[in-house]
Inverse folding.
């Protein structure tokens, strides 16, 4: 296979923030060869240099960024140092994470035509390319629509088409599905796979979702601290569970399971997909059944005890509800109802995951909890007060709301000031504000950046600052809209750990998420919304047991739960929500 | 939220070259500013409505347009007499204010002129999508980069408005209250929203620049082409000729024979 991308000993440092400062080294000697038609996934924790590597592939690094570059990048025989970004655009196309800023035209057609127009092609050629590219991503029916009115998945497909129309040999996608709902993710991955299989496009994909990588990629490259630390086929990479966790990355749940079983049973499993795991464990079932049958009767009790620990304080019958929603309807102006007849209670101290596709009403619902939206019909009561009779500012004492994008909140000149903003708005005296800021800085481990402008911090830290600035107001109820979006596995786990701490301290947690593994692992109850209606609202174990109902809203349980459910004929209960629970059941007598 | 007034149809007006429509707007503006006759203003206003309806623009859109221009339409006749005190019978005398019949009618004419002007622009904006609008300007000699800038400015209006709403909500959820009355306090309270807006706009524009570069914008030695270029078709020539003829007659009448310069008398 001839190499279409050659990266030789690439070093790169961004120019310093302040004049006279030190350059910031990001890539520290990367070597990489990618063959024509390959599908390579790049993984790495935040700050590892993934985006920088992508930008280096089409020459934006160093041409537009400045900074210091050593080593060489050759794409389709062209050295990026000697060619301008616009020239390289025909060899290598870059699709970015943020759809909003890469779709800058008035219509989908203009968007896709923009590249070929810049290349100075004649009109007929442009027309053909636009047609072809739109068909390749199955967006030909949206030609005249403004891109910003499309769904997340559709936007990314248009972004891909806009790049494809320049006919690059290599397509580089930098986390194109971060922040998309499950349907959107599926759409984008399906399109990317078709491009590789039908058109032979070389794909370089930066992605955090190891389960998707296992399904699609032929090769995984792991970047850590500016160096390439692993480069192998997915099966070999995901077998190194401990190594990946040390780097701060996730492996598929079945790979983690394989690792645990190998340690305990001395097997040599190397699962990367659900199919792998099912085939192997299903085969083994006879012995498991023999060993298990007798013990089966007392299999469930330890399991239930294990999960009951999580739910002790959340039995809805014993705790007072802190939020009561009655016959809630909500209409945005001139639109179909966004919420239809919602009735639910949230118990004090509970941990509720809100799941469903984009547009299912998740954000609309939780905005009623802090009064940002008032019911069109029906009633929402928070801590006994009708939200219609109380201002958002006043409710902010009881309900903290952490918005999806940290940049929609950050404004202060220092992190300390940012955190102090909320407590000050509550009218607390200077001493109390100070005390709360100090407490939040320690709890969220932000002391090192207390005097730094939060806007220049990395994404993970910005996320933590926004959480700290809401928690410092000491609300009893915390609402979080996809807080782990854009975080790597380690930062996401750290954040979820902090939330679990807060819950243990008596806070009620309401978490919107597209990550079913998080809902399964942390939430006692899960609320499934679909087209503005409540599809399910019960114990998380019960919710994920109802595959049929979940399927109505295009959701599926976490991989490990799917595995457990498929192994029910072999004697498993099928209720496991985490790898821990699965192992506990599978390995006990 | 969008500043796009365009109503998608395929009428004679929609398919007209945007440059012809622009010419119509320019000529209308000049004519309306040189005329002073109330009846002519009303007649022109009625004609514009005919044009708009013949292009299939729904009544709801026209009603919306009227709602927008209603406040000045009411205020001008009320306030005009206070500042311009013309002769004629005095209708009302109060302190230093004297409202004469003439000055009141003049106010009415001013309002009608403003409405007619507004509808000349509405005729153009209702029937021209933003892409052709910008392309029209570019073909008239505006540099492509300026046109692109204009497109992007129009394109990002809803985005920035959306960001403004979200940021306002995010700060309200942190207890920020915007005071109703005190202007100084009000401006200060908006700071956390404005600063966050600026930071997020900077981030967006940074990414936007990278995205445009990745789409080969500014390729050296290549003349940019265009998928949907606008071209003058025979109908465009016919309408242009018609337009020029009608307006020439009107201008000759106006400047040679002072037609339409009396407020309430046509001839």
């Amino acid at each position: 296979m001839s190499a279409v991308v050659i990266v030789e000993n690439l070093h790169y440092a961004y120019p310093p923030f302040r004049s006279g400062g030190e350059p910031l080294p990001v890539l520290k000697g990367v070597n990489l060869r990618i063959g024509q038609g390959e599908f390579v996934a790049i993984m790495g924790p935040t700050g590892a240099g993934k985006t920088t590597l992508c930008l280096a592939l089409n020459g934006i690094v160093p041409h537009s960024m400045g900074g210091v570059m050593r080593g060489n990048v050759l794409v389709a025989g062209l050295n990026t140092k000697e060619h301008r970004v616009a020239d390289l655009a025909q060899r290598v196309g870059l699709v970015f994470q943020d759809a909003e800023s890469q779709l800058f035209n008035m219509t989908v057609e203009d968007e896709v035509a923009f590249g070929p127009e810049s290349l100075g092609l004649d009109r007929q050629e442009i027309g053909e390319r636009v047609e072809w590219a739109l068909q390749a991503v199955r967006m030909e029916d949206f030609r005249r629509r403004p891109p910003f009115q499309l769904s997340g998945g559709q936007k990314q497909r248009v972004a891909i088409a806009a790049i494809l129309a320049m006919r690059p040999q290599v397509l580089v996608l930098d986390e194109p599905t971060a922040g998309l709902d499950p349907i959107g993710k599926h759409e984008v991955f399906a399109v990317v796979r078709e491009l590789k299989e039908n058109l032979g496009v070389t794909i370089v994909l930066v992605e955090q979702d190891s389960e998707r990588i296992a399904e699609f990629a032929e090769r995984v490259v792991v970047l850590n601290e500016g160096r390439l630390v692993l480069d192998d086929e997915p099966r070999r990479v995901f077998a190194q569970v401990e190594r990946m966790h040390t780097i701060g990355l996730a492996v598929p749940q079945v790979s983690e399971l394989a690792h645990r079983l190998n340690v305990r049973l001395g097997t040599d499993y190397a699962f990367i997909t659900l199919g792998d795991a099912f085939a192997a464990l299903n085969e083994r079932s006879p012995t498991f059944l023999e060993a298990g049958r007798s013990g089966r009767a007392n299999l469930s009790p330890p399991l239930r005890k294990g999960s009951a620990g999580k739910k002790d304080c959340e039995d809805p019958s014993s705790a007072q509800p802190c939020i009561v929603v009655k016959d809630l309807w909500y209409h945005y102006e001139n639109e179909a109802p966004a919420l239809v007849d919602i009735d639910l209670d949230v118990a004090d101290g509970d941990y509720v995951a809100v799941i469903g596709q984009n547009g299912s009403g998740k954000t609309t619902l939780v905005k009623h909890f802090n009064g940002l939206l008032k019911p069109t019909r029906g009633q929402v009561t928070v801590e006994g007060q009708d939200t219609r009779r109380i201002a958002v500012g006043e409710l902010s004492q009881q309900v903290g709301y952490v918005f999806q994008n940290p940049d929609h909140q950050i404004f202060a000149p220092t992190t300390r000031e940012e955190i102090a903003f909320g407590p000050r708005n509550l009218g607390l005296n200077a001493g109390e504000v100070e005390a709360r800021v100090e407490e939040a800085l320690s709890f969220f481990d932000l002391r090192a950046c207390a005097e730094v402008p939060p806007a220049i911090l990395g994404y993970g830290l910005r996320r933590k600052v926004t959480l700290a600035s809401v928690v410092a107001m000491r609300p009893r109820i915390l609402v979080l809209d996809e807080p782990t979006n854009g975080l790597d596995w380690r930062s996401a786990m750290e954040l979820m750990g902090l939330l679990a701490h807060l819950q243990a301290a008596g806070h009620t947690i309401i978490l919107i998420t597209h990550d079913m593994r998080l809902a399964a692992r942390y939430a006692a109850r899960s609320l499934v919304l679909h087209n503005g209606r409540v599809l399910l609202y019960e114990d998380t174990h019960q919710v994920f047991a109802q595959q049929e109902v979940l399927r109505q809203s295009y959701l599926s349980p976490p991989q490990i739960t799917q595995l457990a459910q498929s192994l029910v004929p072999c004697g498993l209960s099928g209720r496991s929500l985490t790898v821990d629970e699965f192992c506990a059941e599978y390995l006990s007598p | 939220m969008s500043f796009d007034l365009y109503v998608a149809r395929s009428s004679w007006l929609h398919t007209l070259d945007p440059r012809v429509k622009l010419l119509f707007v320019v000529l209308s503006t000049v004519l309306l500013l040189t005329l002073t006759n109330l009846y002519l203003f009303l007649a022109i206003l009625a004609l514009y409505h005919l044009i708009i309806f013949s292009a299939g623009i729904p009544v709801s859109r026209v009603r919306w347009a009227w709602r927008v221009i209603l406040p000045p339409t009411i205020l001008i006749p009320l306030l005009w007499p206070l500042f311009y005190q013309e002769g004629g019978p005095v209708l009302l005398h109060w302190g230093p204010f004297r409202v004469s019949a003439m000055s009141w009618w003049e106010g009415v004419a001013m309002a009608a002129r403003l409405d007619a002007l507004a509808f000349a622009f509405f005729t153009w904006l209702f029937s021209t999508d933003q892409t052709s609008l910008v392309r029209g300007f570019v073909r008239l000699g505006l540099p492509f980069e300026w046109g692109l800038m204009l497109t992007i400015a129009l394109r990002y209006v809803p985005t920035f408005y959306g960001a403004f709403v979200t940021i306002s909500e995010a700060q309200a959820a942190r207890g920020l209250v915007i005071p109703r009355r005190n202007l100084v306090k009000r401006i200060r309270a908006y700071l956390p929203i404005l600063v966050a807006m600026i930071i997020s706009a900077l981030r967006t524009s940074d990414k936007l620049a990278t995205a445009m570069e990745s789409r080969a914008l500014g390729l050296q030695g290549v003349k940019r082409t265009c998928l949907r270029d606008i071209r003058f078709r025979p109908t465009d020539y016919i309408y242009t000729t018609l337009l020029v003829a009608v307006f020439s007659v009107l201008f000759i009448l106006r400047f040679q024979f002072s037609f339409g310069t009396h407020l309430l008398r046509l001839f």
In short: Confidence is low (pLDDT under 50) at residues 292-314 of chain A. Chain A touches chain B through 70 residues (CB under 8 Å).
